[in-house]
Task: structure prediction
Amino acid sequence: MKTISNLSDNQLTNKIQNLLNGNFKKCNILNSLVSETISLECNWNGCEYTTHIYLEKISNPKYKYQITVGTDSFPYSEEGIKQAVDYINY
Result:
């Protein structure tokens, strides 16, 4: 199945999971710690665009991080990663 990004679901899942292993730095705009950013070239019905993905450390008793995709966010959990991958690729 053709995806919107140039990555398979497994490749994208691994990239998101690997963000947790990288360095986090202070973002003055968000006033929080954020991971490095993944930038993906995407194509949806001939419209080409770049999607940016990063993790943000949050104060939530249930989740320590959220996955940010553009302007949308998902909890860093197995289900949240699946939702983010589906959001990006479909």
User: Anything to note?
Assistant: The longest strand covers residues 47-57. The mean pLDDT is 93. Strands lie at 25-27, 32-34, 38-44, 47-57, 65-69, 72-75. The helical segments are 9-19, 78-89.
